[in-house]
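**Protein record**
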Amino acid sequence: MKWMNDSRFNGKIKAVAYVWSGGMEGGNAVVDVLSGKETPSGKLPDTIAENLEDVLAGIKVKYMQFKKLKKK
Protein backbone atom coordinates (compact mmCIF):
# COMPACT_ATOMS: atom_id res chain seq x y z
CA MET A 1 0.00 0.00 0.00
CA LYS A 2 2.21 2.74 -1.31
CA TRP A 3 -0.20 5.47 -0.22
CA MET A 4 0.77 4.77 3.40
CA ASN A 5 4.23 6.16 2.65
CA ASP A 6 2.82 9.33 1.07
CA SER A 7 4.52 12.42 2.50
CA ARG A 8 1.13 14.11 2.97
CA PHE A 9 0.40 11.73 5.82
CA ASN A 10 3.81 12.43 7.39
CA GLY A 11 4.01 9.09 9.17
CA LYS A 12 0.65 9.54 10.90
CA ILE A 13 -0.73 6.22 9.67
CA LYS A 14 0.21 3.54 12.21
CA ALA A 15 -2.05 0.74 10.98
CA VAL A 16 -4.66 -0.09 8.36
CA ALA A 17 -7.74 -2.21 8.97
CA TYR A 18 -8.25 -3.61 5.49
CA VAL A 19 -11.45 -5.57 5.96
CA TRP A 20 -13.60 -6.98 3.22
CA SER A 21 -15.53 -10.11 2.38
CA GLY A 22 -16.67 -10.42 5.97
CA GLY A 23 -20.21 -11.24 5.02
CA MET A 24 -23.21 -9.93 6.90
CA GLU A 25 -21.46 -10.08 10.28
CA GLY A 26 -18.09 -8.77 9.13
CA GLY A 27 -18.72 -5.27 10.45
CA ASN A 28 -19.73 -6.56 13.86
CA ALA A 29 -16.64 -8.77 13.98
CA VAL A 30 -14.37 -5.83 13.17
CA VAL A 31 -15.96 -3.73 15.91
CA ASP A 32 -15.49 -6.55 18.42
CA VAL A 33 -11.79 -6.81 17.56
CA LEU A 34 -11.13 -3.06 17.50
CA SER A 35 -12.97 -2.52 20.79
CA GLY A 36 -11.01 -5.29 22.50
CA LYS A 37 -14.02 -7.53 23.08
CA GLU A 38 -12.40 -10.26 20.97
CA THR A 39 -8.77 -11.14 20.30
CA PRO A 40 -7.97 -11.56 16.61
CA SER A 41 -6.55 -14.92 15.65
CA GLY A 42 -6.58 -17.26 12.71
CA LYS A 43 -5.21 -17.29 9.22
CA LEU A 44 -6.13 -15.10 6.31
CA PRO A 45 -7.25 -16.72 3.06
CA ASP A 46 -5.66 -13.97 0.97
CA THR A 47 -2.28 -12.34 0.68
CA ILE A 48 -2.02 -8.67 -0.23
CA ALA A 49 1.22 -7.67 -1.92
CA GLU A 50 2.69 -4.25 -1.33
CA ASN A 51 4.03 -4.02 -4.90
CA LEU A 52 2.86 -5.54 -8.16
CA GLU A 53 6.35 -6.95 -8.63
CA ASP A 54 5.79 -9.11 -5.53
CA VAL A 55 2.98 -11.00 -7.26
CA LEU A 56 4.13 -14.03 -9.22
CA ALA A 57 0.92 -14.34 -11.21
CA GLY A 58 1.60 -14.38 -14.90
CA ILE A 59 5.02 -15.98 -14.80
CA LYS A 60 5.45 -18.97 -17.06
CA VAL A 61 5.75 -22.14 -15.03
CA LYS A 62 6.04 -25.38 -16.96
CA TYR A 63 5.74 -28.84 -15.50
CA MET A 64 8.42 -30.53 -17.57
CA GLN A 65 9.69 -30.67 -21.09
CA PHE A 66 8.98 -34.05 -22.63
CA LYS A 67 10.59 -35.35 -25.78
CA LYS A 68 8.27 -36.83 -28.36
CA LEU A 69 8.84 -40.51 -29.01
CA LYS A 70 9.58 -41.52 -32.57
CA LYS A 71 7.45 -44.23 -34.12
CA LYS A 72 9.34 -47.47 -34.80
User: Anything to note?
Assistant: The chain has one domain: 2-54. The chain has one helix and no strands.
